[in-house]
Design brief:
By secondary structure, this protein is mainly beta. The chain has one helix and eleven strands, in the order ββββββαβββββ. It is elongated and about 50 Å long.
Length: 178
Amino acid sequence: EFESAEGLEARKTKVAYKDLQVGEIKSITLADDLSHVIVSAELVPGAENYLTENTRFWVVRPLVTAGRITGLSTLVSGAYVAIDPVREGEPLDHFVGLETPPVVTTSEAGRVFSLRSTELASIDVGAPIYYRQIHVGEVAAFEMDPSGQFITTQVFIRRPHDARVKSNTRFWNASGID
């Protein structure tokens, strides 16, 4: 399921993992309640081993946000459906697609850390994280706690830099203006 079929075409749009075609969209229909579209795809043999409750799908289109630009190749080739396959979990054959690409896929080595602060400031999903001016990770998500007093920010730090994060590690918002 996706909110819209923008950029998708039956028998033309590919399903890809790491830029390798692993399937094709076979049909696109409107849901009975008109709230979303249902996309049916045929994947390569063996793919069923990776279709679990933890597998994610999203449509790759050009996207420009603060801190990241993705999907520029689709300006020439057209949109495609990306898959983040996961073996662990219960088998599944029906998925609700993500509306925006995930910042981190399961094939990336590293760890997610939770940071708690009183404000978000100018931080957004996808914002880079630096250690000694080396790009080591990204902001993956954020949410306000139920009390409304704190923001919990999930950050992903790539390996081997994740080993540097200890209980006394400090993070701060470094403005883009020096």
